Amino acid sequence: MELVAVNKYYEILFDTKDKVLVIRWKDAIYELSVSEYKAEMILAHSFVEELKPRFLVHDGTDAVYPPTSSLYKWTVENISPKYINLGIKKIAYIFPTEANTSIFMENLVAHAKDAYSEPERKMFKSFEEAIRWISKT
Question: Is 95 helix (H, G, I), strand (E, B) or coil?
Fold first, then answer.
């Protein structure tokens, strides 16, 4: 994987051979307001649009922005539709197992699946599990 972007809030890695893009969030995201976090999400996803991966990994192992229902709705309405247009086949979400975060992410993944049949989405507890799942195509 090649590091293609890094800032205070995330790093973005891209595997050109397998077309896997990883957005790895850092704990500095906790400093952001909701509107600042949305702006960082849009910026991070500009790399998805630019690099056009087949597979996407959202790695929240180190940090997950505090979930709210309005942020959940905004993500499904403003970020998820882009994945369909880009032809992404699978999205892996890696998040810690804290109850609040896990429930939020399970709801986000379920709602996105209901709203959009593609791409396939699944949650994982480790990066290795996510990559194994993506590799089964």
Answer: coil
Domains of the chain: 2-135 (3.30.750.24)
Cβ(72)–Cβ(104) below 8 Å: yes
Q: Specify the DSSP class assigned to residue 28.
A: G
Determine the 3-state secondary structure of 5 from DSSP.
strand
pLDDT digits (tens), the chain, 137 positions: 999 999 999 999 999 999 999 999 998 988 888 899 899 989 998 999 999 999 999 998 887 777 677 877 787 788 877 887 888 999 998 886 654 455 555 666 665 555 555 688 888 888 999 999 998 86
Place of tokens 């939020």: 104
In sequence order, what are the residues at sequence separation of 6 or more whose Cβ sits closer than 8 angstroms to the Cβ of residue 115?
A: 76, 80
Q: What is the identity of the amino acid at 56?
A: L
For residue 61, give both structure tokens.
């192992």
**pTM, two decimal places:** 0.82
